[in-house]
């Protein structure tokens, strides 16, 4: 690839105990998914499923087919362990219960 036909992007993935950012030179027109594959980052971590992973560019969710621009950072997101809405509901229910107990006691 000649210099004029390539762009520099980063691909990032993080676990609580291990993170990696890989700089990759890719062809102009490369998609987020293609850059993630070309980076080899999936070889550094067990369990990355690039075909089903959610991808973002600088914290904004994008489609795997999003064409990249010079300097973009493709982020590979881990699946959620718990649904945030359900967690908030449970927290609110516990707070309401504590409030009722304190008022009664």
Write the layout of secondary structure elements.
Blueprint: E1 6-14, E2 19-27, H1 32-39, E3 54-57, E4 60-62, E5 73-77, H2 84-104
Parallel strand pairs: 1-5
Antiparallel strand pairs: 1-2, 3-4, 3-5
List the keywords.
105 residues; alpha+beta; Ubiquitin-like (UB roll); 5-stranded mixed β-sheet; 5 strands
General description of the model:
The protein has a single domain, classed as Phosphatidylinositol 3-kinase Catalytic Subunit, Chain A, domain 1 (Ubiquitin-like (UB roll)), CATH 3.10.20. The chain is built from two helices and five strands; from the N terminus they run E-E-H-E-E-E-H. A hairpin with a 2-residue loop joins strand 3 (54-57) and strand 4 (60-62). The model has no long low-confidence stretch (mean pLDDT 90). It has a five-stranded mixed beta sheet with strand order 2-1-5-3-4, covered by helices on one side. It has 105 residues and is α+β, with helices and mostly antiparallel strands.
Tell me roughly what share of residues is in helical segments: 25-40%
Q: How many whole angstroms does the radius of gyration measure?
A: 20 Å
Order of helices and strands: EEHEEEH
Find the CATH superfamily.
Phosphatidylinositol 3-kinase Catalytic Subunit, Chain A, domain 1
Number of helices: 2
Instruction: Describe the sheet with the most strands.
Output: 5 strands, mixed
- The total strand number stands at 5
Kindly, what is the distance between the CA atoms of the first and last residues, rounded to a whole number of angstroms?
74 Å
Could you tell me the strand content as a percent range?
Answer: 25-35%
CATH topology: Ubiquitin-like (UB roll)
Question: Rough shape?
Answer: elongated
Instruction: Give the CATH class.
Output: Alpha Beta
- Widest beta sheet: strand line-up: 2-1-5-3-4
């Amino acid at each position: 690839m000649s210099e004029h036909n390539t762009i520099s992007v980063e691909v990032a993935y993080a676990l609580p105990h291990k993170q990696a950012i890989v700089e990759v030179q890719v062809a102009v027109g490369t998609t987020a998914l293609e850059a993630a594959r070309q980076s080899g980052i999936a070889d550094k971590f067990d369990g990355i499923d690039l075909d089903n992973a959610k991808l973002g560019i600088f914290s904004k969710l994008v489609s795997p087919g999003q064409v990249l621009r010079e300097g973009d950072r493709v982020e590979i997101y881990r699946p959620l362990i718990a649904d945030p809405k359900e967690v908030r509901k449970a927290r609110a229910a516990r707070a309401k219960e504590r409030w009722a107990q304190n008022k009664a006691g």
